[in-house]
Amino acid sequence: MSSHEPDQVAERYARRQVGDRYSMMRPEVWQTVHERQRAMLRLFARHGVRELPALRLLEVGCGHGGNLLELLRLGFAPDHLTGIELLPERAAQARRCLPAALALHAGDALQAPIAEASQDIVFAATVFSSLLDDGFQQRLADAMWRWVKPGGAVLWYDFTVDNPRNPDVRGVPLSRLEALFPHGRVDRLRVTLAPPVARAVAPLHPALYTLFNTLPALRTHVLAWIAKP
C-alpha cells in the first residue's frame, strides 16, 4: 500500500488540461449537475432526510466548493458543513467563495481533525476514481465510515467505467463500492449521460441529453446512499 497516494494525486491533477470542460456555461455540464441534484433529492426523500439545516455534512474532496454551494442553496446550514480538499489552490478558491462559518481543511483527508461519529452525511463526488491505490482507497473509505454517525450515511457519486483516454483515473464499479463499505446498506441510482455522448448531443438541443439518458447503458455514474446501521 503506497503512503504517497496524496502526492501522486496532486501530480496527476497538475497534468490535467481541462480548459472549460466543467464550466456551467456548457449545456452538457448544467444538464449533468441538475440531473444529479434531482437524483440526490430523490434519495433524500427515500431515506427520510428532510430537516437539512439540522444535519452535519462533510464533503471529502470539495474542490472549488461548487457542491457545498449547492448544498447551501438546498438548505444546509453553513456552520454544519465541512469541506476537505487536498489541492491548495482549490482549497483557497473554495475558501474565497464559501461562508466563513463553513469549515474547510486543506490537505490529506486522512489527516483531517474529524471526530468519530460526528457527521450525519459524508459526501464524496468523483474522488475514488482519482485514487489508483487500492489500499489508500480502503483507508479513506474506513475513515469516512468512522466519521458517519449510526443512522447516517455516506453519499457517493462516481463513475463506474474506465476512461481509455485518461490513465490517471479509473472507474469504480458497484462491486468495488460495496467492498469499500461492507457494512453499509447501499441504495443506488444510475445517473449521468456518458460525457462524450453528452458533449456531442447537448449543444445541438438540451432535450437530447434527456432523450439519450433514457438508455441505462449510456449512464456512466452511480449516485448512492450508503446507510450506516
CATH domain topology: Rossmann fold
Whole-number radius of gyration? 17 Å
Number of separate helices: 8
> Strand count, sense and closure of the main sheet?
7 strands, mixed
Low confidence ranges: none
The whole-number mean of residue pLDDT values reads 95
Q: Which shape, going by the Cα principal axes? A: globular
> Helical proportion?
25-40%
Order of helices and strands: HHEHEHEEHEHEHHE
CATH superfamily: Vaccinia Virus protein VP39
**How would you write the strand order of the largest sheet?**
3-2-1-4-5-7-6
List the helices and strands and how they pair.
Layout: H1 5-15, H2 27-46, E1 57-60, H3 66-74, E2 81-85, H4 88-97, E3 103-106, E4 119-125, H5 134-147, E5 148-159, H6 174-180, E6 185-193, H7 195-201, H8 207-213, E7 219-227
Parallel strand pairs: 1-2, 1-4, 2-3, 4-5
Antiparallel strand pairs: 5-7, 6-7
Quick gist of this model?
The chain has 229 residues and is an alpha/beta fold.
Keywords:
alpha/beta, globular, 22% strand, Rossmann fold, seven-stranded mixed sheet, single chain, 229 residues, 7 strands, 37% helix
Question: Any overview of this molecule?
Answer:
There is one protein chain. The chain has helices spanning 5-15, 27-46, 66-74, 88-97, 134-147, 174-180, 195-201, 207-213, and strands spanning 57-60, 81-85, 103-106, 119-125, 148-159, 185-193, 219-227. It is an alpha/beta fold and 229 residues long. It has one domain (5-10, 26-227): Vaccinia Virus protein VP39 (Rossmann fold, 3-Layer(aba) Sandwich). The protein has a 7-stranded mixed beta sheet with strand order 3-2-1-4-5-7-6. Strand 1 (57-60), helix 3 and strand 2 form a beta-alpha-beta unit. It starts with a helix and ends with a strand.
